[in-house]
């Protein structure tokens, strides 16, 4: 086994240029290479992609990687190609010629990773050729999309198990950055992976400071905070495209290098604004939640929720983009009852189950925002992790208003 370890480490260095595995990466890779079903729950930025990329490369045949977004697939394919690895994606944007190349490379075994959206996987013609191919294993990225209790449910994801069984008897590795215990169970059940090797690392981001501020004079507060942090990189999340534009403009007239990002912008502008933020030509990006998936900027110093998020899953992922380098990361949410009413309105027109779930997610978020005790303890608890003492690094730990009130009462009592 020692030689396998050595080989993996050599390939890690050779292909990816990393000299060390991070966290459980090596154990996870061994698990999937030994043919075991494997379930990985690690925070964003932990390095989940490598957990299927490297075994795909060292294995014979082609690994199927299921991913929900074309942009995510493209990112990874481009990166792997730049490393000299044959990786391609299969989706509806391909021409006939490109499609044939993908099929040819899969069938002759030269393709190491085949990225595919679940929608394409269900197509008969794709299934037929995959049955003939030598598939090493199946990776399901963003596996929380399987669960309707999660925050990003995709019905097509629930069909994956059946399709995989149709292709062959293949080991599966499922990966996600957010799963409450309930969602985790739902995923494992749906994938028939109750017996899988489970790798779950702590969700605790010790360098992130969590603070909730009442949404009073929020614009003034926002400008003041950003001016005090001039030159630092930050993200301001807003609920609507309109607010994104408004806040970006407000910051610009206040001499902040800020740009908007939302799905309503034309693709070139969106790309250009994202690049400007990544290349430090802009300090602040004002964005809807469309911004951030798969974006890897290590020195984001603050993430501000100008409007309250829809769920703690979303909140955790979005705040998680701060301080990836392990240094300072301030997470500030402006919170008002009006925002919750607005979010509730969005839910009203949804089908019943979806609406009930959205309400449940929102309720959890509200109770977090209204909390008087350690934020981190509550947040981690939500994801099934127990913190045995208060974190000492959130607003409630550092500015315990309740305690101050009690102390003041004590002082008053002593005086009289
Ligand atoms: P996740 O999918 O868990 O959010 P990614 O797979 O996108 O994370 O990886 C996040 C970053 O970590 C990437 O820039 C990746 O290159 C880097 N990374 C992954 N593994 C290692 C490692 N062993 N050493 C150093 N950097 C790593
Ligand atoms: Mg990922």
Give a nutshell description of this structure.
It is an enzyme of class 5 (isomerase). The chain is an alpha/beta fold and 416 residues long.
Can you tell me about this structure?
With 416 residues, this protein is α/β, with parallel strands linked by helices. It has 18 helices and 13 strands. 46% of the residues lie in helices and 16% in strands. A seven-stranded parallel β-sheet has the order 3-4-2-5-6-1-7, sandwiched between helices. Helix 2 (25-33) crosses helix 3 (49-58) and helix 14 (337-348) runs antiparallel to helix 15. The longest helix is centred in the C-terminal third of the chain and has 18 residues, at 352-369. The chain starts with a helix and ends with a helix. Bound molecules: adenosine-5'-diphosphate and magnesium ion (MG). Magnesium ion is lined by residues 48-49, 141.
Short key terms for the protein model shown above:
416 residues; alpha/beta; 7-stranded parallel sheet; 6-stranded parallel sheet; 18 helices; 13 strands; binds adenosine-5'-diphosphate; binds magnesium ion
Write the layout of secondary structure elements.
Elements: H1 2-16, H2 25-33, E1 38-41, H3 49-58, E2 62-66, H4 70-82, E3 87-90, H5 96-107, E4 113-116, H6 118-121, H7 124-132, E5 135-140, H8 160-167, E6 172-176, H9 181-190, E7 197-200, E8 208-214, H10 218-228, E9 233-237, H11 241-253, E10 258-261, H12 267-278, E11 284-287, E12 300-305, H13 312-319, E13 329-335, H14 337-348, H15 352-369, H16 375-382, H17 395-398, H18 401-415
Helix pairs in contact: 2-3, 14-15
The protein binds adenosine-5'-diphosphate and magnesium ion.
């Amino acid at each position: 086994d020692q030689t396998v370890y050595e080989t993996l480490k050599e390939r890690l260095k050779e292909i990816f240029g990393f000299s060390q595995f991070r966290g459980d990466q090596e154990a996870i890779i061994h698990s999937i290479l030994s043919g075991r079903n494997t379930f990985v729950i690690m925070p964003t930025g932990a390095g989940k992609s490598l957990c299927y990329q490297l075994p795909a490369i060292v294995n014979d045949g082609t690994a199927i990687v299921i991913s929900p977004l074309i942009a995510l697939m493209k990112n990874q394919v481009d990166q792997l190609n730049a490393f000299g690895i044959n990786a391609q994606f299969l989706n509806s944007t391909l021409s006939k010629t490109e499609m044939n190349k993908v099929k040819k490379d899969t069938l002759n075994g030269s393709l190491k990773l085949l990225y595919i959206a679940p929608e394409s996987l269900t197509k008969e013609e794709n299934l037929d050729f995959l049955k003939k191919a030598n598939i090493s294993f199946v990776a399901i990225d963003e596996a929380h999309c399987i669960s309707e209790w999660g925050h990003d449910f995709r019905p097509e994801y629930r069909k994956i198990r059946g399709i995989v069984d149709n292709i062959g008897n293949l080991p599966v590795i499922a990966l996600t950055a957010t799963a409450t215990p309930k969602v985790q169970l739902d995923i494992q059940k749906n994938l028939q992976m109750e017996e899988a090797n489970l790798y779950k690392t702590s969700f605790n981001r010790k360098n992130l400071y969590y603070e909730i501020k009442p949404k009073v004079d929020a614009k003034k507060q926002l400008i003041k905070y950003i001016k005090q942090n001039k030159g630092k990189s930050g993200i301001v999340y807003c609920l609507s495209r309109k607010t994104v534009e408004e806040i970006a403009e407000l910051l610009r007239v206040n001499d902040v290098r800020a740009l908007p990002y939302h799905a309503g912008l034309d693709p070139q502008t969106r790309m250009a604004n994202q690049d400007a933020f990544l290349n430090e030509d802009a300090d602040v990006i004002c964005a809807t939640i469309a911004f951030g998936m798969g974006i890897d900027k290590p020195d984001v110093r603050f993430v501000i929720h100008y409007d309250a998020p829809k769920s703690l899953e979303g909140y955790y992922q979005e705040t998680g983009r701060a301080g990836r380098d392990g240094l300072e990361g301030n997470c500030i949410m402006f919170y008002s009852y009006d925002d919750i009413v607005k979010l509730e309105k969005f839910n009203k027109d949804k089908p019943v189950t979806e609406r009930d779930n959205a309400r449940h997610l929102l309720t959890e978020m509200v109770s977090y925002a209204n909390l008087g005790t350690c934020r981190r303890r509550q947040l981690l608890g939500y994801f099934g992790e127990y913190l045995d003492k208060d974190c000492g690094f959130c607003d409630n730990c550092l500015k315990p208003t309740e305690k101050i009130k009690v102390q003041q009462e004590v002082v008053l009592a002593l005086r009289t």
